[in-house]
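Escalated from tier 1: 2-phosphoglycolic acid holo job.
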Amino acid sequence: MRKQIVAGNWKMNTNIAEGISLALELRELENKFNDNIEVVVIPPFTHISEISNVLSDTDIKIGAQNCASEEKGAYTGEISAEMIASLEAKYVTIGHSERRAYYGETNSILNKKVKLAIKNNLTPIYCCGEKLEEREAKNHFDVVKTQISEGLFDLDNKDFSKIVIAYEPVWAIGTGVTASPEQAQEIHEFIRNIITEKYGKEIAENISILYGGSVKPSNANEIFGKTDVDGGLIGGAALKSNDFMGIINAF
Ligand code: PGA
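Tier 2 regenerated the structure:
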């Protein structure tokens, strides 16, 4: 059985005091969370150490929003996968559409990040998803296939099995517009099919594929109800503890 995951990506929000207070709220609420769901919070790098202390006596896991594409050395301003792993973080998002769009991250750069994350025992949450014009041109299947094959398909079976995929249509991120449950299912099934072709059915059936893009407590249940949707990568709604809990409990 594949894992069901709800991960909250805080993006570049909260100062340290606000971040700690949000983590404290989650710690208080944790006993009301659905036990079957792996809950992950993904704060800014600067907060990871403090927040992993706050959440140390909970089952909530910590992630980072990015990691460097190089192992170590003269790369001013970068944060390596090894540094993240040394902070008790378990996950790292790689290739979020904001990284692709604003920081020029290509599939080949992301492929290097994925490998360094795995080498350091972090679980990559590899993000993919098409822009509005790509969907309108009906290119979304090709776009997602290229992102996944160029970013991931040179991994061997063992390493590929460690990946979590997040499908996030760019037109749904932070816009209030969500993909319909049918649109999400259609592309999640497509992703699982291309994984089956490359790695076989057993591996494909065990990979968690999350949906992201304007997930809220009010729409999560319908989206998570689809066969190939194994949870969500949550932006805006992850900044409000009660909304985040509503999404966790929407399964
Ligand atoms: P959103 O962001 O939930 O605010 O749309 C999702 C994401 O970027 O992961």
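The mean pLDDT is 97.
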